[in-house]
Every structure is written in C-alpha cells, then in structure tokens.
Amino acid sequence: MNPVKTDQRGTTLMELMIVVVTLGIMAAMATPRFLDYIPRLRTKAAVREVVSQLRLARSTAIAEKIPTGIYFNSYEGGYVVFADTVDVGSQLYDETDQLIRAAEFSPQIEMGYVTFNNNVVIFDADGSASSSGSVTFLSQDGEQLYQVSVIAGTGKVKMEEVAAES
C-alpha cells in the first residue's frame, strides 16, 4: 500500500493565473500615469540639451579664445550656437557670424521668457558671460517650469525645476 503524501510543494495553475491577472491589472493602472509623465520627460530632455549647449559654448570660447554665444529665437522656438566673429562685443547675433549649431525645439516644447540682452549670451575667452540672465521652458501639460540661468561673472550655467503657477 502506498502512503498518501500530504506534504506536497509547488504552485497550482489557479495560483499562477491569479498572479498573472493581478500583474495585468496593476500594469493597466500604471500605464495612464506613465503616459501623462512623457511630456515632462521630453521638456526636461530639451532643457538639458540647452544646458549642454551653453556649457559647450563656454568651453569653446575658453579653448579657442573666440567669443562664443547662443542666440535664443523665441519666435521660432529654437537657438543658434555661434562664434562671435562679426562686430565682436556688440552683444548681438549676426547671421554672418560663424554658425556652430542651430536647433529648433519640438512643437510640444514651449520656450517662455528670455532675459538675456537681445536674447543672446556670449562667453568670453576667460569663461565669463556677457550678461546674467535666464531662459524658461514650460512642460506641455503646463505643470512644470524649468529655468536655465547663466551668471555673468563666472559663466556658470545651472538648471532649476520650479513648480508652475496655476
């Protein structure tokens, strides 16, 4: 006679199905929240790109000993990185200046106000900036405001996240 085993271990098909259904329900609940977050991620990536380009302009100015700047085009929603070779010291972007890079923001990225003189910041060979100022960006959902600032004396570039006002 075979003894009946009462100490069996393992998972039944029913238990496995309960786990799969539970995970499916949790994933279905999380997906809309994640999709709401995507516009903020895109805006933050664009802002980080601007910070990167400002730092590159400063580094280029120091390395090449040529004033290098960025012009923020608030009408078309983009920026131009340039070497200030024409009318140096005027704090203006001239289309005949040496173009390093030009970029436009995605239509989902809203560039707010620019406080640099003539929408231009130029870095000198010592790394200092032509003026202190900032440029702001608003996430598509309107809930997150990003501000990129430059300090004139040091040329330091920083990004801050600020909760948008309702």
SSE diagram, text form:
Elements: H1 13-64, E1 68-73, E2 78-83, E3 98-104, E4 110-114, E5 120-123, E6 133-138, E7 144-150, E8 157-163
Antiparallel strand pairs: 1-2, 1-5, 2-3, 4-6, 6-7, 7-8
What does it look like?
The protein is an alpha+beta fold and 166 residues long. The chain has one domain: 3-Layer(bab) Sandwich (minor pseudopilin epsh fold). It contains 1 helix and 8 strands. A 4-stranded antiparallel sheet has the order 3-2-1-5, covered by helices on one side. Strand 7 and strand 8 form a beta hairpin. It starts with 12 loop residues before the first helix and ends with a strand.
CATH topology-level name: minor pseudopilin epsh fold
With strands numbered from the N-terminus, the spatial order across the biggest sheet is 3-2-1-5
CATH architecture: 3-Layer(bab) Sandwich
**Which secondary-structure class do the elements indicate?**
alpha+beta
- Helix % is 25-40%
CATH C-level label: Alpha Beta
Low-confidence stretches: none
